[in-house]
Structures
1.
Amino acid sequence: MPKLDLVGAINLALAQEMERDERIVLLGEDIGLNGGVFRVTDGLQKRFGCERVVDSPLSESGIIGTSIGLAMAGMRPVPEIQFEGFLGPAYDQLVNQAARCRSRTRGAFTCPMTVRVPIGGGIHAPELHSDSPEAVYAHTPGLKVVMPSRPYDAKGLLLSALRDPDPVIFFEPKRVYRSLKEEVPEEEYTIPIGKAQVVSEGTDLTLIAWGAMVSECLEAIDRLPEEVSIELIDLRTIYPMDVETIVNSVLKTGRAVVVHEAPRTSGFGAEVSSLIQEDCFLSLEAPVQRVTGFDTPMPYYKLEKAYLPDADRIVAGVRDCLAY
Amino acid sequence: MPRKTVYRAEVEYFQILDEEGRLDTELAADTLSDGDVKALYEQMIVCREFDEQAFKLQRSGRMGTFPQNKGQEAMALGAARALRKGVDHIVPYYRENPAMFLHGLPMHYVLLHWMGDERGNAIPRNVEMNALCLAIGTQTLHAAGIAWAYKLRKEDRVVLCFFGDGSTSTGDFHEAMNFAATLKLPVIFCCINNGWAISVPCAKQTASETFAQKALAYGMPTVQVDGNDIFAMYKATREAWDRARAGGGPSFIEALTYRLGDHTTADDARRYRPAAELEAAVLRDPLPRTRKYLESRGLWDESQETKAQEKAKVLVHEVVQAALNIPKPSTDDIFDFVFEQIPESLAQQKKTMRTDSIGEDPTQIGLKPPTEPGMTEKPKAVSH
């Protein structure tokens, strides 16, 4: 079985699904000949041609808006927005058009598309290349929001997204792109959207994270004393959230810490925390903790390490929660 | 080294049927037959009556805000007539009811939309058009995308996209023009220059002499025509349609027309629009012009006019009744079309019509009953 990084796993999933489904069209800035700025679509234009892997104009609203048209007319567009910081110009088309397409036409038109977007910090990128806006889109009815933390999941989740009848934003944590290799089967498999994964089982406290923060949580677990039993949940899908997995875990452990890169206020951790409070109130031994980015603009990269939650901050959050 | 000119361009304007109903027969060759014009004029009468009745529905409190189409009938009908019904695709904004009706949209759908009912957007399968679009300019990109799908699948189909003069100030408009031109998509951009974007006149919307010239920057063929002239609208659109089908990519048409009504029923154009301008525009109303032409050809007279008006009244009355008599949608509809498959949390909101969770227990949201003894004391579900 080949060992692939996140880039390789996504590339493989795209290629296999393009082979299977002729309706799939990739479009975005520099994704063709250049293979994308992170090389995620490397070789795909050569293999599938310029009509199916399209170097689009530098035009984010245009990329999403034309994808909506393609989807309405029966294609399966896979637009790439080069960095999450460039989602701004496409916001209106995504939120006011794509997300509402099925609902406002009572099903007469649908918008099946997978918007691929690199997300998050930690790679010393310039301004507006390191943010984590997943909560914005999770707050948009009509969009599904997915964020894998590892190559194996990326392939299975992307296949599910590409086959989903509704718009999916597929956030790819940049920090994970090249940092982790694992065995990714050639053969087809899917991971359902809306299902979290229990990465490690435990009985004392539930850690909930997604994207690049999952690795940080694993490192935090390693640093904690062995007798502390942590259950780590990788959310994998932000919306629709797998409430069941979270609630069952917290009913067991009685303590929860949510970790994300995005700012704390109105971050998705607030939603996770609120649901735990609603569904596990009588089982809770401590308030739900949040270990997150600060409520500031993402700093330039000299200070990004200070901004991003790391294993130390997660350990501190876990200790406080356990000691409560 | 001498400076040199690297680009020079002109924009053509034409009119075929003038304000007095006189036809330029040379330009009119191979356009609309007598039968076509008669049928389109009858359709104009129906649409004017629809507009009037829709206005009354709003004023009598039976419908929400409505944008009158009055004055723009020839523009919409001439353009739409150049396309094949059920084959080519129309992407409207929201003042092209005549085009949508001509291509088969059941008329009460438009009323349902403005009555606050999404079912008015549920375009039937065999009707080739998008639903009304309220976010100005956004639809131009959808039109380009649909045309792109046709091109990729090598389907012989063309998209006609309507938008107003105000739309040309949006980013989406320019992105759509650029996508369509660079990808050579079979789409016709029909810019309805009706003089006003709510209260902002064209002079404040753009510093360009014409809207048509904007297409030149994208390398797109363009023309300006009299939009109240059914022949000119047909001809310009037909030429663009031919070009698109031949692989020549997109075209731009600036249709000079006038919004004879207010922006919507929530607007009062007297606050910003000179009375004299409206009076002059009334003289260019496409209905009397088309009628004069038909009369001059001996194809129309007073009794036919009366008959057509009466027929339109009966038809529109039926349409209004159809819209009024449709039962209110179920609240399930709020939830059932967000996704193809309803997520569990949404299914819960649909079932209970509540978002508060006190009273829920884990079994209520599909979870296993708690195993810890303390948990059994959790409040039981209240019935909804």
2.
Amino acid sequence: MAEFVQLLFAGLTTGAVYALVALGFTLIFQASEVVNFAQGEFVMLGGMVTVFAYNAGVPLPLAALLAVVVAAATGTLLHSLAIAPAKGATVVTLIIVTIGASILIRGLAQIIFDKQFHALPAFSGDEPLRVFGAAILPQSLWVLGGSGTIVLGLWLFMERTLLGKAVRATAANRLAAELVGIDTRLVLTLAFAVSAAIGAVGGILVTPITLTSYAVGTLLALKGFAAAMLGGIGNPVGAVVGGLVLGLLEAFAAGWISSTYKDGVAFLVILLVLFALPQGLLGRAAVGRV
Amino acid sequence: MSLLEARGLSIAFGGVRALEQVGFTVDRGEVLAIIGPNGAGKTTLFNVVTGLYRAHGGEVRLDGRDVTGLPPHALAARGLARTFQNLEIFFRMSALENVMVGRHLKERRRLGAELLGLPSVLRENRESRARSRDLLAFVGLEERADEPATGLPYGALKRLEIARALACEPRILMLDEPAAGCNPVETEEIDRLIAAIARQGVAVVLVEHDMRLVMRISDRVLVLDQGRRLAEGTPSQVRSDPRVIDAYLGRHGVAAAHAA
Amino acid sequence: MRPGTFSKLAILGTLLLVLAVVPLVLPSPFHLRVATLVWINATAALGLALLIGLAGQVSLGHAGFMGIGAYATALGPKHLGLDPLSSMALGIFAAALLALLVGRPILRLKGHYLAVATLGLGILVHLVIVSEVPVTGGPDGIQLPHVELLGRRVTGPELWYWITGTGVVLAAWLALNLEDSSTGRALRALHDSEIAASVVGVDVARHKLVVFVIAAVYAALAGGLFALFNRFVTPDVAGFLRSIELVTMVVIGGMGSILGAVVGAALLTVLPQALTVFHEYEHAVLGLLIVLFMVFLRQGIVPGLAGRVVRRRSA
């Protein structure tokens, strides 16, 4: 029981970060049909900027805010300097553009920061909580709570605000959205900024547990992508479910089977799922129209 | 035994019955037109018969043999070819190459020989190219054979699809709105093409909105409405069928039909 | 002949000319080593050009097949007592077999689903190579013996330059032949419309599988040649970044262009060597260049420049 709870919390914690990355993928994909492989770099920026600002004497909450702003600005720049000019390019070309951008961001981070691993202090102490005999880090609760708040906030934004509805309209039909007077360029920029901010928050929350470095983005992007596809791309609920499922599978595979192949679980699962359900878990089967 | 026989075909999309118990037969050299208002299920019927959609009920027989549920390429190998309402052109290829792809089943493919570019492959290429040029000439596109397909106007693309389908040397040719978007001159051209194709012994099934064209060239007409068979008969029978007039043709349609 | 492409002979002639001129202009062993790496990468990129450019099927995990070729070549002599050349042949066979087995379910997928599945396949291969330390040597890599042919040692940068150079010309020749064949036309057709291809009788699934296996064989051959030439392989040869590099070679050179794949391979092989002068700016500059190329020369170098020349002539 204790081991089960331990693995459950470990899985949910990593899963929550995957879910945030996947959510970022989904948001950008919905608005622009671009799969943004630079998504992981926002998580890296969240962690790294906070660490360096905090170490320079900025109070933690302010450092975190700064990190979110830096990530959002990077997301906006990514859109206006790389994605928007490549408008209309093929899927493969756009994938290469975002991967090029992620290499660039990582390269810059390596210059501006350094190549070391860095930690942040846990937000509310390191004293583990005892739950059914398992030791749960308080930071895990921060990760879970923070991610939950973001998911809820994003949902409210999309459902309840005019801007959110504009995003959904753009996602559903860009031309029609433009015809009714929605500034789709603003919506796209917003989608990139919000995705980046979400990723950054994930990075800030999880750094006290997992540490961070300039290079953490790649694997996170790949797993976030896998999570988004597992849920069925373009589906925010699917992204969150996909992320949590992947996190849990990894944790239990590492605990019960082999920790060597932990990083392979996500990809093995996605292959098996796609073989059975070519549109992902929650994706709709498309009927080709001719 | 008919060349192609569809019986009791039914299919539904998300609860909407797109086809219910629809069937038809067609034989060598015959022209069957399928008409009906938008959403009557004409294209869906095409898609089911050519293997793009899987019917929820009913069967398709070719030469009396059950071919229901076979994939499109297997049906093509048995002599069934088609064109598309919304054009499915190979836009990265020239007009000629589009037709050459239609020769696929007539070409012998041995991967090893193809990789080595053996003389047999080159000979096959030459033959396909020559045949395809003939077909482009048949549909009146010989002048534009080497142009990229992207540059061709709509009417030419409609005829290009017909040439590509003919390259399969089909026994049954299914044309989905061959004259849609064509001007009267082009429509007349397509009219002549269809007649010539049928004369060669090919069974032609076409979906068409141009009533003049339908009345002029069809041997039989099948009328669909809301996924069901409404009427079937010779053009003159259908033209005077009160149910058809009520449900579909309307005053304008009747006038057009009589003018034909 | 296809519009906008060079004829088969012109492409092969260009390649042969470059192959002959490089050792005259850049005779130093260092330059020949870099050129050899270009030929090896170009071989892998050519296979991918057929898969992505001709048939329109993305693979973000192709380095996995390269890794299989490289590691089979390295492991055969170490564990099975085989000579490196037969090990390489086995590796190519293994890669083809894997492609054949996973190809059908993977190639049913489209667009981003295909991308993530191939990505996953590549990462799993890489992970096995990294993790099975007793067999593969893990992250530290593995050493290979010299290749011996007819009792003589195959060594020296110049010899390897000619071996891999001949290999890439042959690979390009086969690819060009395939393009101009019934199978090639079917592949280009299904790139544009799978539905239209299938109704004229193209077995779409089968043809995708054929080109996937061919691309895997090219990659495994490249991996094997790399192992033999370098006499040392690390898991990087199968890594995600290598897969991305391969795709970038194809895209930067110009999708669907055989010459483009070679030009792309040359650029992405030589560039990092040249960028080492930037020291720690290396990655940033590489990323920046990739973005710039994709934004400003979207069609790729070869078709892009060819298009410009044609426009100028007709102007």
